[in-house]
């Protein structure tokens, strides 16, 4: 039998129930007439009071191997899997035989003695389990799950898994204190810090506020830390949220870092920024785009059209018979057997996805709605041909917005340098055209009006950030006058920083910039606003977070 086949046989013969049991089945020694050294690490289970000699059981890993009288496969398993232990047992047998040392029947080898709780190996495994729970956001009672216990027992049979209370009251607080100390040390070295925050509600209808810190380290790496997620009692007024932000910054000793703040556009968050006295206070760009899009979708003609689409989609979701007929029509028309998608009112991209799916399944939807079996007793307003034309125009109009949203959500290091280029490109895309229908003209106007009123007073900051970004450094979205003024401001700031570096000898501000080729990102590249350019390894001062973690 080949080594690979033997390993497969060993794996297939392992009994999961035996290994998961907290009191594993007893392994009995082979009869005394079997003198081979291999029986120091192999034995048998008992069935109905008798030794089951059809399978030999390894005392070291409890693997079950087929036994028909030949010990070749047993010997190869012991050498291959347990070479060191096998050699020790062989030596013990030789010494014990010569000295006529009696062995107690059914004795468990010393290999299976429990690890001490304070042993280095046990502490290492416990720390690893604690990190696994923390990084995976796993419940503490995972240590009580049968599958998890089986996994740990397979990896280290000698290790005793700590209880849930021990993880909760001892291990996790110790890990939190250790990580908090490391984060505080790194934040202390930061020159500026950006704060992002948002309030959310759990499935148990409990309110929480999460605060995240971002900063550029002296090695020019962008670091992100979730500082805290705390239950928030009381009213979510701007004053209360602002007080919470100030207290969090005080607890983490970053008030003197002049923290910038990024939140959504909610009124209480705007007031919270004023209460916390954090500047600049930027609004999440993804949330801003979502609001502008929702404004366009709420126009009367568009809202009526979306209402019709939602009724049709909802009907196929509620009726089992309707879903079956739709699936039959999809097969007959050779269309993908996709289900219709119901949108979520607070997420504009879900509405876009719903409309795209309706367009894809238009023939099947029309055929299903005209079915006699389906329409019997049903009063349902069907979509007309003009409605499908309007849906197609809306989907086409919103493609650039979809590309921007996807690009921002996939960007692991978003900075405010993209706001001005993307904002100007979207405004140009949503300019009215002569060939626009009434629906599209209304949507474009609503979108532009909502987008233009955002970020007033922050244009200089955005232009500076864009100019420092190699992708947009030529500032093609600005007039020549505005571009020259931006470069003049940057030159003045750079001179000030250089003089400061010479005066203080601060390496954070000094030193030449190194360049590496950058990769053009296809999503925004399709909009024609990103360019190929060398990208610095150093992020300029003042480039902070573009939008909240999604």
UniProtKB/TrEMBL annotation:
Instruction: Please name the InterPro entries in this protein's record.
Output: RNaseH-like_sf (IPR012337), Znf_BED (IPR003656), ZnF_BED_domain_contain (IPR052035), Znf_C2H2_sf (IPR036236)
Q: Which GO terms describe its molecular function?
A: DNA binding; zinc ion binding
Occurrences of domain BED-type (ranges) = 33-89
- What keywords were assigned to this record? Metal-binding, Transcription, Transcription regulation, Zinc, Zinc-finger
Highest taxon of the lineage: Eukaryota
* UniProt-listed Pfam families: zf-BED
The name this protein carries in UniProt is BED-type domain-containing protein
The species is: Nothobranchius furzeri
Identify the coding gene. LOC107379526
């Amino acid at each position: 039998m080949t080594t690979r086949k033997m390993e497969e046989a060993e794996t297939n013969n392992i009994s999961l129930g035996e290994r998961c049991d907290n009191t594993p089945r007893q392994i009995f020694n082979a009869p005394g007439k079997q003198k081979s050294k291999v029986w120091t690490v192999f034995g048998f289970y008992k069935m109905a009071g008798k030794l089951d000699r059809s399978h030999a059981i390894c005392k070291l890993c409890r693997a079950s191997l087929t036994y028909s009288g030949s010990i070749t496969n047993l010997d190869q398993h012991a050498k291959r899997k347990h070479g060191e232990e096998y050699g020790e047992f062989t030596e013990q047998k030789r010494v014990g035989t010569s000295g006529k040392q009696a062995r107690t029947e059914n004795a468990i080898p010393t290999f299976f003695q429990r690890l001490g709780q304070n042993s280095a190996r046990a502490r290492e495994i416990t720390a690893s389990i604690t990190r696994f729970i923390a990084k995976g956001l796993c419940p503490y009672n995972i240590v009580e799950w049968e599958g998890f216990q089986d996994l740990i027992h397979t990896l280290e049979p000698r290790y005793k898994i700590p209880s849930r209370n021990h993880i909760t009251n001892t291990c996790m607080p110790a890990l939190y204190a250790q990580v908090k100390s490391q984060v505080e040390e790194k934040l202390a070295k930061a020159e500026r810090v950006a704060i992002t925050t948002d309030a959310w509600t759990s499935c148990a209808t409990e309110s929480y506020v999460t605060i995240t810190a971002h900063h550029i380290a002296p090695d020019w790496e962008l670091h992100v830390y979730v500082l805290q997620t705390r239950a928030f009692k009381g009213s979510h007024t701007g004053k209360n949220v602002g007080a919470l932000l100030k207290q969090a910054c005080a607890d983490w000793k970053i008030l003197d870092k002049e923290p910038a703040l990024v939140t959504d556009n909610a009124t209480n968050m705007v007031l919270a920024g004023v209460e916390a006295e954090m500047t600049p206070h930027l609004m999440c760009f993804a949330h801003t785009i979502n609001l502008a899009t929702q404004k366009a979708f709420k126009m009367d003609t568009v809202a009526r059209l979306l209402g019709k689409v939602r009724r049709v989609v909802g009907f196929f979701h509620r009726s089992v018979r309707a879903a079956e007929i739709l699936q039959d029509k999809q097969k007959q028309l050779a269309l993908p057997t996709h289900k219709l998608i119901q949108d979520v009112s607070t997420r504009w991209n879900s509405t876009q996805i719903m409309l795209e799916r309706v367009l894809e399944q238009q023939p099947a939807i029309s055929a299903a709605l005209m079915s006699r079996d389906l329409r019997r007793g049903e009063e349902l307003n069907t979509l007309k041909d003009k409605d499908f034309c309007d849906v197609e125009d809306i989907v086409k109009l919103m493609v650039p917005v979809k590309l921007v949203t996807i690009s921002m959500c996939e960007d692991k290091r978003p900075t405010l340098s993209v706001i001005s280029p993307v904002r100007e490109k979207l405004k140009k895309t949503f300019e009215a055209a002569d060939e626009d229908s009434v629906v599209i003209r209304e949507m474009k106007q609503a979108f532009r009006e909502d987008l233009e009123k955002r970020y007033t007073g922050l244009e200089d900051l955005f232009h500076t950030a864009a100019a420092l970004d190699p992708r947009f450094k030529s500032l093609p979205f600005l007039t020549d006058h505005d571009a020259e003024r931006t470069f003049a401001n940057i030159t003045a700031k750079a001179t000030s920083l250089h003089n400061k570096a010479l005066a203080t000898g601060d390496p954070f501000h000094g030193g030449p910039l190194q360049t590496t080729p950058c990769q053009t990102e296809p999503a925004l590249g399709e909009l024609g606003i990103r360019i190929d350019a060398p990208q610095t390894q150093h992020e300029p001062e003042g480039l902070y977070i573009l939008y909240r973690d999604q």
